[in-house]
Hints:
Elements (H helix, E strand, L loop, with lengths): L2 E4 L4 E10 L5 E9 L6 H21 L10 H16 L2 H19 L9 H11 L9 E4 L10 H4 L4 H8 L4 E2 H10 L4 H4 E5 L6 H20 L26 H10 L5 H13 L3 H5 L6 E2 L4 E4 L2 E5 L3 E5 L8 E4 L2 H21 L20 H14 L8 H13 L4 H8 L4 H7 L1 H19 L3
Antiparallel strand pairs: 1-2, 2-3, 4-5, 4-6, 7-8, 8-11, 9-10
Helix pairs in contact: 2-3, 11-13, 11-15, 15-18, 16-17
Amino acid sequence: MPSIExxxxxxxxxxxxxxxxxxxSKIRKYKKVTLPEGLSEKxxxxxxxxxxxxxxxxVINGTYLDGEKVTLAEFVDKxxxxxxxxxxxxxxxxxxxxxxxxxxxxxxxxxxxARLQPVHVIEFYNNLAENGMRLDGxxxxxxxxxxxxxxxxxxxxxxxxxxxRLKSNQTSDIKGVSKIAxxxxxxxxxxxxxxxxxxxxxxxxxxxxxxxxxxxxxxxVHWQIIDSNxxxxxxxxxxxxxxxxxxxxxxLAELLACLDNEPLKYQTIVxxxxxxxxxxxxxxxxxxxxxxxxxxxxxxSKARQYTPTTGIITKSPKTAKSNRRITxxxxxxxxxxxxxxxxxxxxxxxxDLWYESDNIFTxxxxxxxxxxxxxxxxxxxxxxxxxxxxxxxxxxxxxASLLISQGIDIVAVSKRLGHSQTxxxxxxxxxxxxxxxxxxxxxxxSIIYKK
Length: 451
């Protein structure tokens, strides 16, 4: 049985014996417990007994981690395997792991998790906001290292335009120079000079780091490795709410007109995004069996993602309510029919090279298409036609904003978008609601005061 020793008014030490060392001495594990104030003696006893039983169980099972001895980095290794890997979608897992490895662990990973204090967290957030923390700095190659750009391992692994820019004394971003440094198995600063170290992270980015770190530490509390989460005593920077960027009707009409000379696959994808308000991953996950051509209905039951570690995968949509059926325009159905015909023609041309599947959007030979390639194409499409800059995802914002501005019920819009709660739709599209409210007021004027 664990022993419970009172140290101060609300502080206790629980001791569990777990065998003997080779020299015959008892092996003991200790846990410090601080109870909240205001508990009666009976409540304290119940809480302490519960903690002691759980503590003994983790010690016996060999799963106990001592927060006084385990660093944040060591705990994160366990958290990634035992928590994140099981609960996060692959892309969320990849992004969380990257954020931890990129900034959180280099700054805080060496600290024993029980010794992590709010002041450490505050200093970390302040550091993220300093100049140079963003990864969009500009680099030039050192004059003495220029010959390295002609090495075969660089030429075979780096974009030719990046190499030519650096050869002509122009700059490259961190992504380009990192590829070169990796090909040469050398640190970036040994080959390149930084000429612009970029700005600090935005308040939104710092808030994202706060959310991730807090999640990790909350898990440590639940696993009884630490008593409290220091992030709960720190206020992240206030994130300014920005209007969801979108196109106005005239801009959208221009974009759709510019699609005429683009590949049919991309014409279809963009029109589905505009008319259906679907996420890119949901569009790329569509199969022909999901299309009801007779009734102009799409069934959304899966999404496609890509990460460097998993490749292209198919998963369930973002939330339970993302599984949905939406009605689409006959214009979109017509494009899908034409695209289907083109796909069958390509299948005949490819013969045995064709990868048989029910997928709507594939590569030339029927293989799965990386959703990120569509984002890259869309960025180039916008630039080629001199259109106002938006991302592919903002086509979804455009679709929702136009529906709301036309007076479509917010519940219907939320359901169409696949949001888990109507409040999510209200928060994102408050600008469109304000415009609809203004137009409603004008409509009342015309009704009440019409002559």
